[in-house]
Every structure is written in structure tokens, then in C-alpha cells.
Amino acid sequence: MTPVRSLLSTLLFVGASLSLVPATVMAQQLCAVDLNGNGDAADDGETASCHLTGLGGWMCPIGETRCEADSAGAMHCPLGDQYACAVPASGGAPTCSPNACIDTNANPIVDDPVVDDPGVEADGGVDADGNCLGTIEIFSGRAARCRPAGLKTTFSNCCKDKGKIVKDGMGGSISSIGTKIAVAKGVFTGMKAAYGAFKAGATAGQAASAGANAIVVGIDPTSIAISLAINFMMDFLLSGCDQQDMEVGMLRGSGMCHEVGSYCSSKILGICVQKARGHCCFNTKLGRIIQEQGRPQLKAFSAVGWGTPKQPYCRGFTPEEFQALDFSRMDLSEYYAEVEARAQSEIQIDMKDKIDVYMQTINN
Hints:
Strands 10-12-13-11 form a four-stranded antiparallel beta sheet. It is α+β, with helices and mostly antiparallel strands and 364 residues long. It has helices at 3-14, 177-199, 204-216, 226-237, 243-253, 285-294, 319-324, 333-363; strands at residues 29-32, 47-49, 51-52, 58-59, 65-66, 68-69, 75-76, 95-96, 102-103, 110-111, 141-146, 257-268, 271-282.
């Protein structure tokens, strides 16, 4: 069994009792409260599912307080008599809450559409003389978003950094942002295929083979740390994160994304209950660094900058703009340090492989 299949098989066995993507069970009654006064209810502890009372009503657990009896034995809410006391359906002392519940059937959560910018087409159309028919862009990017912990992500942080998974490069087999995204999509497809087969009754080994085959189709394994990617995808598949969260997470952790800012992506009755972070993701870390340090040198970007968090402006440089960049004013030490570290690592791996082969030879 190949290392990829072996790892998939192990992960499938460990996750045998877990579903592919747990359903985001949205309560029929929800309360959302701006506890920290920042204008939304998207932070930890600011949204909650309401619980039933013994009279068939609903009680918000945020700010819920036990009621007190007066001298005549009547129950009163210490927060004010305008708040009704009620016994929980599960029993216990009467409680009250200053916060109202929202019927999500009558007032559904409204989600902003996901901005899925495919980026500039790689190797576009040319005329009979081989001249490009489209706009040439150098170090172009793709607008995408990931979501921090919130109601719609089942309070999982879909923007978390899991380390470098997609390997950097200045060209070679992975030469466009589209194919970099294909790497992330390929691993996602592979994990779905593995779980689909497993849930349909395949053994862990058979499911792992199905997943591994799906992963490697169209992907150069030298461009991605497969074992890290599989663990990354497993973690995400067992949370409330969607496919674009996963794609951005892989590229962001690999140093290829510039975060533009945060915006509200889901609301209920006008109250924000889920935030998102807009990004420009590039084909390489070098592309991201040059974009970050090159844009301030060009007047064309002075007004628009990186766009808005909800609509990031990720276009590449025109040939004329690229020629106008003063690289002597750029600090590329972040990239140089990585190249040096990677070269040293590759040398060590190569030496270990050679030693292993030698030891196998003399022991046979």
C-alpha cells in the first residue's frame, strides 16, 4: 500500500464513527446578542440556541438568570419585571433572560453569496501569429474568503493556519493560480471519494484506494505535502467549513494569500452572526510578496488598493507595470530565507535516501 493510501486508511479507521460533514443543526429558535458592543453578534458566546420552557415557550441562555421569590412567594426576574420567569422544560428553578429568541423559520439566516473568482485564465486564446488575445497579467491572484469561528461554521475556525501544505515554486509543473487551486480541490475531492466509498460499505483499505486515486489525478505530488494535506482536509471535513474555506486555508497556511480584511457574511434580522475574511491568493509566496511590495509603487493601485474585504482586487501587473517596479526597494528576505531552508532540507532528504539505499545493499 502506498503511503497516501496507508494514511487515508488509518484516518478512515479513526473516523469510522463520524459522518463526512456534520450537519449544521440550526435551532428553530436562536438568540444573538452583541455582548462586546462591536456592532455584531458573530463573536464567541454571542449566539446560542434557545431552550424550551415548561409552558412551551423559548428561553435565551445568554444572560439567563435564576428568578427570585418575594415575600408572598411570587417569582420575579432580578433583571426587571418586564422579563418573564419560566421553568425550563427539563425542570429546575424558574429563570428569565433579557434577550429575545428569534424564530429562524420565520426569519431565516441570510448568507452573502460566496465570491468565487477563478482568476485569470492560464494559457488563454492566441491569434494565428501566437499573440495573446487576452490581457497579460503577471503575478495575478484570485479573490476568495475563509470564515473564522462562528454560527455557520459550527464555531470551527476555518481560517486557521495548519502550516505549509502547498509547496512554493516559480513555475515548473504548477504554473498558474488555477492549478494551485486545483491542488486543494483535488485533495478535497479525494477525501470525499474516500468517505463516500467507506460509508457505502467499502473497507478502509478499499476506500483509501478510491480516495488516493482521486487525489493524484491531475496533481503533481511534488507540489504538495500530501500527508499534511490529508490531515488538514480530515480536520476540515469534520467541521462546518466549506470547500472554499479549505482552499483558502491551504494556500493561506502556505504563505500565498494576502488578507484584505473582515466582513459580515451571514445575518439574521440584520444582526451579523458570521464573519468572513477576504483574501487575494497567489500562485506562489513570491507572487504575494511582490504584489504586497510592488503595489505601493504604482499609481494604478493608489485609489483602489486591495479592494474591499467582500470584493478583493487581485489583478496582476501589466507588463508595463511590472517593468516599472523598483526591486531594489523591495524586501524579499522572507522568500530568500525559505529558498535557503528548502534547499538545505532537500539536501538532507537526498542524503538520507542515499544512505538508506546503501544500507539496504550491504545488508542483502
